[in-house]
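Supplementary Text 2. Reproducibility record for the structural model of the 219-residue chain.

All settings were left at their defaults, and a single model was retained for analysis rather than an ensemble. We include the record here because the model underlies the residue-level annotations in Supplementary Table 4.
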Amino acid sequence: MPTPTFPRKSAAPTNAVAVVHAQRDLEVESYVPEIVRGVGVSMKHFFDNTREMFRRDRPDPVLEPFGRGVTTISYPEQKRPYPERFRGMHRLTTRADGSMRCVACLCCSTACPAQCIVIEAGEYPVGDPRRGYERYPVTFAIDELRCIFCGYCVEACPCDAIRMDTGVHAVPYDSRDQFVYQRDLLLSFRGREGTFETSNPRLEPGDPGHPGVSRARHV
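Retained model, structure tokens:
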């Protein structure tokens, strides 16, 4: 049985136009003039920017709009102002007497969607008025590389013990271990106001107007 053949389609009309290549002489193929021209532009900007720096006419890239001249921020000497609601590095707040506000309730670690907070709770020693009333974090660590800076830990904390109001971002390190911030390091960070305490007014147990159970009543 003969093999059936299919009719071939006629060739489609083409509107292609032949490209005429420009003639390139030795000057163009050597790239020397373009190299000299590019280096000249770079050196012109270099001397202009250097002259502005010595004359102190350099525009401030933080406060002034971008324009001619150097617009590079010399970090960390120069920093762009962060908004007040900027979620910066975490910190642990303290009370007026210097003790930690954190009671190791694990609310922040439970609310954390990235699971970057690790807390080990401990009891205060015998004789301490806080024993049996509240606990403290023996271990409090935050993996800043896993953190997504959502602020859920701040919202979940009932004691306002963890804040993200430092106004700074993570610094570069050369190892992963350095991005795991331990309790003592978190306690050493200050807020925007420069204090270790929280800016929100808080009533401590035993203070007039405190709605909860006081330590004296508990004992």
